[in-house]
Amino acid sequence: MRDSSGWLPTAYRSHTIGQVVEGGESLIGEEVTIAGYAETVRGRGAICFLMLRDGTGQIQAFLKKDNLDASLFDAIQSATRESTIRVTGNVAQKRAPKTAEGESPPPPEFEVSVTSGEVLAEASAPLPLGVTDEVNVGLDVRLDNRHLDLRRSHVNAMFQLRSKVLEYGREHLISEGFQEINTPKIIAAAAEGGTNLFPMKYFETDAYLSQSPQLYKQLAVLGGLERVFEIGPAFRAEKHDTYRHLNEFVSFDIEGAWMDDEDVMGVQERMIRHIWNEVASNDLALIDAINEYRASQGKEPVSVEVPSLPFPRIPYCEAIEIVKKGGGEIEWGDDIESHHCDIIASKYPGFHFIPRWPMSMKPFYIHHKEGEEGSDGGQLSRGFDLNFGRDEMTSGGAREHRVEVLEQNLKDMGLDPADFTFYTDGFRFGAPPHAGWGLGVARLLMVLTGAGNVREVVLFPRDRSRVTP
Ligand code: AMO
What we know:
The chain is α+β, with helices and mostly antiparallel strands. The protein has two domains: 17-121, CATH 2.40.50.140; 147-457, Bira Bifunctional Protein, Domain 2 (BirA Bifunctional Protein, domain 2), CATH 3.30.930.10. Helices cover 29% and strands 25% of the residues. The protein has 13 helices and 17 strands. The protein has a seven-stranded mixed β-sheet with strand order 6-10-11-17-16-15-12. A hairpin with a 2-residue loop joins strand 15 (383-388) and strand 16 (391-398). Helix 5 packs across helix 7 (261-282), helix 5 runs antiparallel to helix 8 (284-296) and helix 5 packs across helix 13. The longest helix has 23 residues, at 153-175. The relative contact order is 0.11. The model has no long low-confidence stretch (mean pLDDT 95). The structure holds aspartyl-adenosine-5'-monophosphate (AMO).
């Protein structure tokens, strides 16, 4: 439930339910108008108890047939669950339940004694999924009915946390001098390789949906904006069907001039610590709502342990050795896959960076690592990942800022430099060395909320089989 202490009255209510509940004694006898969803309607005959819930709280409304317009009383008494209702009435203290001798009385509770009201929209019955009573339905049913799923308190809590994570992340970056930018999502050239682009018709020409703000955030920095960040959608035409891949996801990106890979890893770990710190200080009620649900499902609670800095750095070469020693099959030059990450995570269970990947495994814009070679003699890069457990959270790195090297990298990776002149031209007139990263917001939320699937923490996920709702 959200804290609504500062919210102003609107056309439909004088108070939020949260304000009435919090206001308690100070509002006794005062007339309020509240609106919400009908959670339950109880009582037959001449009295009726309506449990009303909005996004900020829940409260009982008490209706007496004698005091009300008969048709209104009947309409509310027969209202289906989740119908929206507005009532006006006076705040009263609920009669305290009897307590046994020696038992301390419970804190006072309040109700609204209704004098008028209106059923705003009747809900169809039966509901496709339970909102307050727990009926186990699959993720697909939940996502098909996300509008109702969101009314469940632990789901609602996850999206409140999502908003908080973005707020605290933004707040931190701004405190380090980053400014927010918005880059185009309709693009002409691939940033992350040409195979997983969604093509689209753009008037008389062809275009694509952006896979990453990569090239544009770099251009912004080359142009002198120094430190930028963007929180925006990225589209990948990947045929994955996993718990952590979507075809549209929100990427939280930064780019900074005069920075290298180590500098931006520092920004990343400070930002994550700030987010965890703030959630631990302000938002534990949201975590409790999630844990209440987890307990009902027999799942371990999640806890917000603020990570200490610096996060461990396990260079790619060392990570390969850890996997080998742990019995995993892997060779230098292979990607580190989830089952390999499990082995690394048994030694480094929290956030950890994997820096210095082989240059051959990184995109054309990544800078090589001077004076160091991999065990096969191949060049190492200034590219890194941030992992938590078996999942990659972030990729990033220092960028190549010399245009001749960039053009060679493009050719080496089978791309045509002619398609990238809009980007490479940005490097021809003096380019500051720079670095950055891109963080998958849903992946970070999985860690914070204990969600086992990114779809849980994405409002309307887009995967191979889902483009609606
Ligand atoms: P990368 O392709 O690794 O790097 O993406 C960055 C982060 O975005 C998340 N992510 C995804 N999340 C959900 N579904 C997907 N299909 C998906 N693909 C990626 C991951 C990943 O770590 N331009 C670089 C970043 C940079 O160097 O600044 C990039 O896009 O959490």
